[in-house]
Amino acid sequence: MNENSQIDFERLPGDQPLDETDLSLRAYLAGLSEEHLAQYDASWSDEQVLAWNGNFRSDGALMLVCCERDVDVTEFRRVLDEYLRFRSLTEQSQLVGHPFRRA
Length: 103
Hints:
- By secondary structure, this protein is mainly alpha-helical.
- It is 55% helix and 0% strand.
- Helix 2 packs across helix 5 (73-95).
- It is globular, with a radius of gyration of 14 Å.
């Protein structure tokens, strides 16, 4: 994804109002490399997700800059799935010539 897609995902409205932690998590996910994201498998156990990501503390919370609360693997997976769906929709809409994001 390009820089514009990263910004769009960070600002995409959520189901509820977003706090600083939500924005930091979205920015973190949008910053993951294409190669790293391609390795992800939604059927993995939580332990496999923790090992794949490699950025969780020993207490099970994700290490994030600028966060007001801890992000556990359940929230991480939920937002990662949202991000992957967003990427898929964005890519599909660009293929048919109707950008999902606004310029």
